[in-house]
Amino acid sequence: MQSPKNPLYPIEIDDYPKLFDYVLTAEGLIYFKTLKRNYILGKQMALDEYNKLRLLYVYYATANRNFKEVFAWQDICITLDEKGIFEKEMYQSKEDLKNKLLIIENPHYQSGLYRKYTEFVKENMNSE
């Protein structure tokens, strides 16, 4: 179960920047805004672009400690799944982002922190 105020509960907002192994570069931020705009405008995108939107969105939202944007990222993931656009070949999409220097290693990354959130979600789904 999600907290109505904290979409990644039980992770505290101050720990959001530690959740993921990569962060956006300035060029990555520009590319993210382009992908997000294309998505909002309903433009046709390739699977690779949807994968990159998912990745860049969560990096963006958590690095900025922004609840609203994390909720929007979760909503996009759900909406894409409902449209039959599932995460496939994410590894290649992420490698491309790394190779183009649109994302770089996160110096604040804390391994295992995101697992704390996913385990919490699984436990609560099983109890419902």
Short précis:
With 128 residues, the protein is mainly α.
- Number of helical stretches of at least 4 residues: 5
The radius of gyration over CA amounts to 15 Å
The geometry reads as globular
Q: What spatial order of strands do you see in the largest sheet?
A: 1-2
Q: What is the residue-mean pLDDT, rounded to a whole number?
A: 94
Instruction: Work out the helicity level.
Output: 55-70%
Tell me the β content: under 5%
Most strands sheet? 2 strands, antiparallel
Q: First CA to last CA: what distance?
A: 9 Å
From N to C, what is the helix and strand string? EHHHHEH
The structure class reads mainly alpha
User: Which regions are unreliable across 5 or more consecutive residues at pLDDT < 50?
Assistant: none
Using DSSP, what is the number of strands? 2
Structure description:
The protein contains 5 helices and 2 strands; from the N terminus they run E-H-H-H-H-E-H. The model has no long low-confidence stretch (mean pLDDT 94). Helix content is 57%, strand content 5%. The radius of gyration is 15 Å and the shape is globular. The chain is mostly helical and 128 residues long. The chain has a two-stranded antiparallel sheet.
